[in-house]
Amino acid sequence: MISREQLEKNQVWLYAFVLMIAAGTGLLWPESSESLDRMISFILAILLYGMFTQIPFFRLQEALANRKFIYALLVTNYIAVPILVWGLTRFLPTDPAILLGVLLVLLTPCIDYVIVFTHLGRGNEKLVLVSTPILFVTQMLLLPIYLALFMGKTSAEIVSVGPFLEAFLGLIVVPLGLALLTQWWSRRKPHGERFLDATAWLPVPFMALTLFIVVASQISKLYTSYHFISQVIPVYVAYMAITPLIARIVSRIFRLDTRAGRALIFSAGTRNSLVVLPLALALPEPLNGVVSAVIVTQTIVELIGELLYIRLVPNVLLRETNGTAENKMNRLGR
């Protein structure tokens, strides 16, 4: 029987396989998209609950202990990346649906499988793990501000507050609240601790199931929205190519050790597509079809990019260096 560690170690290849199967299913049986659409919210809620239970919300003090990394993380994700995204979106057409989709996904740093990619890329995944509560809270607070800055009144006109708020409450606040209760229970009762351990099995299979349902239900929209998709792919590719260089510069400015620098690169390059997808699906028709297609496209581009990252980051961009000082810093980072 496969262990959870083996499942997590091989999850990237599982997702790649699931994406291929989902694409084939959606293209061969497009009529199934409607029934799959109805399942997205429920499956996403379970996935997000599973993800949130694994985020150490009660270890904020530990996260703040490595202040250099936290400062570098915030500067990269909320100053350097937004400036880059603003520059890249200048090459997009003025279509608000395309712009909204790109902004939603590129302005929100990943809080889940970035930990796995960081580990595979020989970065300090523990630093990323304990930083996830900070990233989650800050992106939820800053995203509306960035949308208003980048889109002006247009964002208020196309984002209907009612459905948007309903999706935020149902698919983010409720799973988050349940996850916090689960963590609180686990700190006080043995049954709660065992239940929390059991929830650690949820993210990988439900991530795979979510990817299958989302891609299978949205692939026909990608196919019919090829005109829109073809315009955002170069932006996503450019983003994946440029952010490692920016993160490396920030890493040097803050004098991070090698493994922490790699973690910063993966945080900058990996985005929060599945968390913002519910917000896109809450938009009115036909806007939600274009926005969700733009977001799903980023997920596919990102997965391919991450497979390159895990090879290039440790072997080319930030190679291990010898020396007592470096080794000492690595031990402290752990």
Automatic annotation (TrEMBL):
Q: Which GO terms describe its cellular component?
A: plasma membrane
| UniProt source species | Brevibacillus brevis (Bacillus brevis)
Instruction: State the family it belongs to.
Output: Belongs to the arsenical resistance-3 (ACR3) (TC 2.A.59) family.
What subcellular locations does the record give?
Answer: Cell membrane
The UniProt keywords, alphabetically, are: Cell membrane, Membrane, Transmembrane, Transmembrane helix, Transport
| Sequence intervals crossing the membrane | 12-29, 41-58, 70-92, 98-120, 127-147, 167-186, 198-216, 228-251
**What Gene Ontology molecular-function terms does this entry list?**
antimonite transmembrane transporter activity; antiporter activity; arsenite transmembrane transporter activity
Name of the featured protein: Arsenic resistance protein
Q: Which taxonomic lineage does the organism of this UniProt entry have?
A: Bacteria, Bacillati, Bacillota, Bacilli, Bacillales
Pfam families on file: SBF
Q: Does the keyword Cytoplasm apply?
A: no
Its placement in the membrane is given as: Multi-pass membrane protein
Q: What is its main location?
A: membrane
KW Transmembrane (keyword) present: yes
